[in-house]
Amino acid sequence: MNWEHILPKQWMGEAQRDGIAADVTMDNDAFAAFYERSARPLWAYLARVSGDAALADDLMQESFVRFLCAAQTPSLAEGEVASRRYLFRIATNLMRDHWRRPNAASIEEVPEEFFTARDDSAQSDSQAWLGPAMARMTLRERQLLWLAHAEGYSHREIAEVTGLGSASIRLLLFRARRKIAALLREQPAVMRGQA
Amino acid sequence: MTHPFCSQEKEIRRLIDAGAWPQGSMPELQAHAKSCRSCAELIRVRQAFRDARSEAVRQARLQSPGLLWWRAQLRRRNEAVARIGRPLLGAQVFALVATLAIVAGLSIFQAKEGFQWLAGLAESSSLHWLHWKSLESLSSVVPVIPGTSISLLVPAVLMLGLLSGVIVYLVLDDLDNLDDADRQRHDSR
After folding, report:
1. pLDDT at res. A67
2. Which of B45, B79, B86 to mutate to test the interface with A (most CBs of A within 10 A)?
3. Three-state SS sequence of chain A
């Protein structure tokens, strides 16, 4: 049964105005194609920045569902880049909200092992090298660094994703890069060799 | 605070992203990267993140897009039904409360006239008061406002209750729309 046929036109008009009919902008097939191209980079972002693969699974699902439900979901006409940026923006906010919750552990309280050896099967050389350094960064620094250096976003794009000012991004990113570069320099030579 | 970004960073960034660093770069650029602190930092950090991304993308555990699509559809429908149901329920409750209040107020207001009418009824020995004409006389003996009768008052009260319910529905609907807009703004903030 289709609710659109039952609900009065006035209500459905308002519903469409509020984004309930977002499938007008992205249908099932278009979404499947978009998901195929965007899900892996999004999972990588969530998993490496949060340091928790299970949390990344949950947040990725929620990000896509909210993306589909959102009123301002960019249409395909606006381009996939805009859609992906919007998706990362939702994921960034979800991740921040998760860490802000009282029952969630503070990012500073998470032990370093959480980032480096939580999942042995998924342990990789790059993670073994980058993980300890990432563990000593704040959540925001991790987000900024990943968006800039893993995703290759510009300062303006990072500003859109994080909601920070474009001018602030430059300074924050400069500090974060300097900090993590120093931490990576301190890594044992063996780890550097692995990576 | 100054940010000593080097002018060569853009080219180095492009080469790293293309997977062409250092083999695809000019020897002068490689020599510069060894002597420039900013470029050395960029190379170290960017290569580490690019490697980490490649690894993580391979490890990603994906769900079926159809399942996510279905969940989104379900959530949208639930939200639509809840959005419509909330003000409707509120309007119904308000209309009920308003009607009860009006009936109670009217009863109290008309109590005096009612008692007089009952006394008159007790004095009457026949049952001819059930006749329609007696009802007309009843409406004329219990005026609420001078010049009006109960036959006008009852529809007016009912209309007032109905309109009150509609107004409350519209107000609650607007409030719900504002709440939803706030929530979506928060999601995309």
Report:
1. 92
2. B45
3. CCHHHCCCHHHHHHHHHCCCCHHHCCCHHHHHHHHHHHHHHHHHHHHHHHCCHHHHHHHHHHHHHHHHHCCCCCCHHHCHHHHHHHHHHHHHHHHHHHHHCCCCCCCCCCCHHHHHCCCHHHCCHHHHHHHHHHHCCCHHHHHHHHHHHHCCCCHHHHHHHHCCCHHHHHHHHHHHHHHHHHHHHHCCHHHHHHC
Q: Are A31 and B65 in contact (CB under 8 A)?
A: yes
* Interface touch A177/B83, C-beta < 8 Å: no
Closest alpha carbon within chain B to A183: B45
What's the token pair of residue A81? 């880049």
Count of other CB atoms within 10 angstroms of residue A57: 17
Residue B68: its H or E element: helix B65-109
- With 70 as the cut, is the pLDDT of residue A5 above it? no
Omega of the bond leading into B22 within 30 degrees of 0 (cis)? yes
Residue listed under structure tokens 């007032």: B160
Q: What is the mean pLDDT of residues B162-187?
A: 73
pLDDT one-digit tens code per residue, A52-77: 899 999 999 999 999 998 866 666 55
Residue in B13, B184, B186 closest to A19 by CB: B184
Taking the Cβ of residue A19 and every Cβ of chain B, the question of whether any pair is shorter than 8 Å is answered with yes
Residue numbers of B between 61 and 90 with CB closer than 8 Å to A: 61-63, 65-66, 68-69, 71-73, 75-77, 79-81, 83-84
Largest separation between any pair of C-alpha atoms in chain A: 69
Residues B45, A145 contacting (CB under 8 angstroms): yes
What does the pLDDT look like over A32-52, one tens digit per residue?
Answer: 999 999 999 999 999 999 988
Per-residue pLDDT tens over the stretch A166-177? 889 999 999 999
pLDDT in tens, B55-76: 999 989 888 999 999 999 999 8
**Alpha carbons A3 and A73: distance in angstroms, whole number:** 22
Confidence of residue B159 (pLDDT cuts 50, 70, 90): confident
Q: Does A171 touch chain B (CB under 8 A)?
A: yes
